[in-house]
Amino acid sequence: MKNESDNKMWRSIEEQEGKHVPQARFNPFNNDFLSRREFMEWSSGMVAVLSASACTRMPQQKIVPYNKTPEKVVPGKPLYFATTMTLNGRAIGVLAESHMGRPTKLDGNALHPASLGGSDAYAQAAVLGLYDPDRSQSLNMAGSPMYWENAAASLNAIAKNHLARRGEGFRILTEPVVSPSLAAQIDAFVAANPAAQWHQYEPVHRDTEREGALMAFGEDVASVYAFKPAEVVVSLDSDFLMEPANPRYARDFASNRTMLQGSHGMSRLYSAEASPTITGAKADNRIVARASEVEQIAAALAQACGVSVQGTPSVTAAHKKWVQAAAEDLKKHEGASLVVPGRWQTPLVHALAHAMNARLRNVGKTVRYTAPVEVHSVAQSDSIKRLALDMQAGKVETVLILGGNPVYNAPSDVKFSESLSKVKNRIHCGLYVDETASQCNYHIPEAHFLESWGDARAYDGTASLIQPLIAPLYGGKTYSEVLAAFSGDANAKSYDQVRAYWKGKAGGDFERSWTRWLNEGVVEGSASADKRVALRAEGSWAKVGRAPTATSMEVIFRPDATMFDGRFSNNGWLQEMPKPLSKLTWDNAAFVSAATAAALGIKNEQVIRIVWGGKSVDAPVWILPGHADNSVTLPLGYGRTHAGRLGTGTGFNAYSLRPSGSTWSFAGVEIAKTDKQYRLANTQSHANMEGRPIVRTATLAKAQKDHHWTHIHMHVPERLQNVDVGTAGGEHAPVAPAQYQWGMAINLSACNGCNSCVVACQAENNIPNVGKEEVIRGREMHWINLDRYYEGDTANPDTHFQPRMCVQCETAPCEVVCPVGATAHDNEGLNNMVYNRCVGTKYCSNNCPYKVRHFNFFEYTKTITPSMKMVQNPDVTVRGRGVMEKCTYCVQRISEARITAKNEGRKIRDGEVKTACQTACPSQAIFFGDISNPNSLVSKIKAESHNYGLLEELNTKPRTTYLGKVTNPNTALSAEKS
Amino acid sequence: MSQDLTPESVIGPGQTLSSVTDKINDIVVKQKIRPGWVLGFFISFCLLNGFFLTVALLFKYGVGIWGITVPVGWGFDIINFVWWIGIGHAGTLISAILLLFRQDWRTSINRFAEAMTLFAVACAATYPILHMGRPEVGAYWVLPYPNFMGMWPQFRSPLMWDVFAISTYGLTSLLFWLVGLVPDFATLRDHSPHLWQRKIYGICSLGWRGSAVHWNRYETIYLILAGLATPLVLSVHTIVSFDFAIGIVPGWHTTIFPPYFVAGAIYSGFAMVLTLMIPTRYFFGLYDFITPRHLNAMAKVMLLTGLIVAYGYLIEGFIGWYSSSEYERFMLINRFVGPYRYFYWALLACNVVIPQLLWFRKLRRNVPFLFLISLIINTGMWLERFIIIVVSLSADFLPAAWGMYYPTTFDWTMFIGTIGLFFSLLFIFIRVLPLISVFEMRVLVTEEDHKRKGKPHA
Question: What distance in Å separates residue A846's CA from the closest CA in chain B?
Answer without folding.
Answer: 6
